[in-house]
Design a protein that fits this description.
single chain; alpha+beta; 2 domains; seven-stranded antiparallel β-sheet; four-stranded parallel β-sheet; 14 helices
Length: 464
């Protein structure tokens, strides 16, 4: 049984995590020592005069992608020994505020992701052994695109979902997957319908799974997938609203919220019967910034508090601010359990699109009244006075150039950009709504992107 073999391969990492959960500080310091030792002599460490693990937090600054971008650009051109001693196997793209970010992946970073995944599967299959008996559908990589390489001839993007794993587990997972390679929507549906032994589905946004189910309206889902009992997806923040629709589609479906995963790091994974995801102690070195700017280590976190995640990984990102905020919901043994709260920056993310004001500002028209973009009825809407036709054309083209927004549009998770033409005293209506939400007029900052939704119900005007 392939599922049982995969579970057996995950057991050592699951047991290692359970031991580490009683030795949080020691586990994290052990990882940090190995990370510093392995990369001694790389140019980044020499630049900051780092020679000992004890100096790691003193000498290396907190950084974001913008500060690391010059280093990553040199790596992409093929220069070695810059951020780490290991060769970079590929760059995985993800959205940035202005353009696509390229995250370097080494063999060590792949192994770190696999450790987190193995601990999750070890716990999941132990508690739900029936999932081992069938196949799984995982949606990780985007649909196939034309292969790309950097100027230094380094691949951009993973070939398929199984490529995230290493060693003999990679071909094993390919045989377990209902769809080994990412496909377009129609092909995905056709292959899933032809998989009656489907037991597990893992997707990012619940809207993607609902989109697939829409194509099967009128069909008995239980006849198509009589053994499907488990769905893993985002369930916090904006994704929470879609859970009732998921439960209505298959009433006996067990929905497990995902842990916090970013392209840069495997932060946490869910545990059965626990609220919040367990910090993936063996994956990376973690630090946390509280709302007063103070720094904490994993063993210093307190229940109920909110922190920003800072990660150091085996791909050459050190003291890297992920921009994700978490709340500590409790502990498994001594390991913190985390719930995703939101982004530190202004980000609208309903389906994984990660839309920011910087993606909107370059094409936003200059008008006398309120002029902004916000989410409404399955897509984004430009609210502004005057003629909107040209701005909508330019905006749709510009937004689709942003990596994750473009993926969501191509998959059909987001509708095209629409326009709502404002009329009359739109400023008064604008501020009246914000005041009803507890905002003071003098404190409202202008922004090309607003996170409040359904503005057409509150502003005078009509659809363009």
């Amino acid at each position: 049984m392939l599922g049982a073999l995969w579970w057996l391969s995950c057991l050592p990492e699951w047991r290692k995590f359970r031991r580490a959960a009683r030795q949080v500080a020691a586990c994290q310091q052990s990882y940090l020592s190995k990370l510093v030792d392995r990369n001694q002599g790389c140019e980044y460490f020499r630049h900051y005069k780092l020679t000992r693990r004890e100096e790691f937090r003193e000498r290396l600054p907190l950084v974001d992608y913008t500060q690391l971008e010059p280093w990553i650009e040199r790596c992409a051109k093929g220069q070695a020994n810059l951020l780490c001693r290991e060769p970079i196997r590929l760059f995985e793209p993800t959205s940035g505020t202005q353009a696509v970010k390229l995250i370097p992946y080494t063999a060590s970073l792949k192994a770190e992701f696999q450790r987190g995944l193995s601990a999750w599967i070890g716990d999941l299959y132990a508690g739900k052994p029936e999932l081992m008996s069938g196949r799984a559908y995982w949606s990780i990589t985007p649909p196939p695109q034309r292969p790309q390489r950097t100027a230094g001839d380094i691949p951009i993007g993973f070939e398929d979902d199984a490529a995230y794993l290493s060693g003999w587990t990679q071909p094993l997972l390919r045989r377990l997957l209902a769809i080994p390679k990412a496909s377009d929507l129609d092909e995905t549906i056709a292959q899933l319908v032809d998989c009656p032994d489907l037991t597990l589905v893992s997707v990012w946004s619940p809207t993607f799974w609902l989109l697939l189910l829409e194509r099967l309206q009128g069909r008995d889902l239980r006849k198509i997938w009589p053994r499907l009992r488990f769905l893993s997806c985002w369930a916090d923040g904006p994704s929470e609203r879609f859970l009732p629709a998921l439960r209505a589609s298959l009433p006996d479906l067990f929905i497990q919220p995902k842990g916090l995963l970013a392209t840069e790091a495997f932060v946490s994974f869910p545990l059965l019967g626990r609220q919040g995801g367990a910090l993936s102690l063996s994956s990376h070195f973690f630090e946390f910034v509280d709302e007063n700017g103070l720094l904490y280590l994993a063993h210093e976190l307190r229940a109920g508090q909110i922190y920003e995640v800072v990660v150091s990984n085996g791909g050459g990102l050190y003291r890297y601010r992920l921009g994700d905020r978490i709340q500590v919901t409790g502990f498994y043994r001594d390991c913190p359990l985390l719930r995703f709260v939101g982004r530190t920056a202004l980000v609208s993310d309903h389906c994984g699109e990660k839309l920011t004001p910087e993606a909107i500002e370059p094409w936003l028209p200059v008008r006398g009244g309120p002029c902004f973009v916000a989410f409404e009825s399955g897509g984004y809407v430009l609210y502004a006075q005057g003629e909107l036709e040209e701005a909508l054309k330019e905006g749709e083209i510009a937004l689709c150039k942003h990596y994750h927004y473009g993926l969501c549009r191509n998959l059909g998770q987001l509708k095209p950009l629409k326009g709502f033409r404002l009329e009359g005293d739109s400023w008064e209506a604008f501020y009246t709504r914000l005041e009803s939400l507890g905002r003071r007029r003098g404190e409202v900052k202008p922004s090309a992107l607003r996170l409040e939704e359904d503005w057409s119900r509150h502003l005078p005007g009509g659809w363009a």
